[in-house]
Amino acid sequence: VESVVIPNKNYEGIRSSADYDLHFPAKNLPAVGAAIYRIEMVTDSTLDALSQINLVQPTSPLRRMLENTNQEHLSVSSGQIEAKFSSGVLTHICNIGDKETESCQSVHQEWGYYTSFDSTKHAKSKDDTQNSGAYIFRPSDPKQELQKLAPDPSKSFVYKSDLVTEVHSTMEGGWIQQISRIFSGGDYVEVEYVVGPIPIDDGLGKEIVTRYRCPSIENGGTFYTDSNGREFMRRQRGYRPTWNLTEYQLVAGNYYPINAAIYIEDDNLAMSIAVDRSQGGGSIIDGSIEVMVHRRTLVDDCRGVNEPINETDAGMTHYPPYGDAKRIGNGLVISAKHRLSLSSGRKGASISRSLMDGAFSEPLVFAASSHKYVDFRKAE
């Protein structure tokens, strides 16, 4: 089958991570069944052996490293959509697969954080003691705007192939990296990100957020989140359907659980984000969706766990009286994926279902070593 090998710069410096990703299409997988693929380093003798058992030979991209180019502006087409990037970050998505609905929309992705509320630093009265922590999300200011992190153009790279194009980017500070993928024939953009360790040298906890903005969508504060992967629940910013809400937390008060997907829409356009794990998010600004992906706080929220969210990769010392219960090592590094898609009209639920199925029903991959060629088509 056609295949390509691409360096994975997202995981540089992470122990036991692979340096490269192998991409190939796994088509016509049987329901509740399996397909077997053999993967091997390509040499002249390997090609001879492959031809002897009548298997399709690998295409040339498998045998060469893809050329990387440092480009500030880039357009990538899958045949269904065209994605445009600046400094390695998404700026536009164009629907080119259907001539009747062909359009190009401004879609900007941003990274940033909210500083966590710490009563020893941010309290305006002695009774204001509720910290941000394991059970409470509370920015240091209830009207705080996202503290944005700009992309570093010098660390943006593009890897092109007929199967997939990857745009690698790094945000300022170097602790947020991501790969945006556009697959041939696909109608969505996949964003795989690595975040951490979150810096705390300034003595402030941080709530890390990525925001997707499509200003053309006039959603009027309305957005939809899934109910444990089932039906979608209508959410209205600054409103509760069963009581009169007095709003004190403009950001945290409008965050909701996202187990599978979140979307916004109006009569002309819909934008959906599918997640691969439970996260929190909302539409804090019209025409945008933001999702919290990582957190690190420095004070306890006094809700039961008796410690801040300050996990590290080397654990901690013993609790008193045997130690001082201090964290050891660096903050945790997390990795996850989002899938972003646009559609015309009020089709947010429809495109979300499609993205959810792909994100949650990916084939299970099992690997085993083999020292000789086996023609699996003849196996009983």
From TrEMBL:
UniProt-listed InterPro entries: Gal_mutarotase_sf_dom, Glyco_hydro_38_C, Glycosyl_Hydrlase_38
Domain of life: Eukaryota
Gene Ontology CC: one annotated term: lysosome
Organism: Minutocellus polymorphus
GO annotation (BP), single: mannose metabolic process
Molecular function, one GO term: carbohydrate binding
Span of domain Glycosyl hydrolase family 38 C-terminal: 81-302
Pfam family membership, one: Glyco_hydro_38C
Name by which UniProt lists this protein: Glycosyl hydrolase family 38 C-terminal domain-containing protein
Coiled-coil ranges per UniProt: none
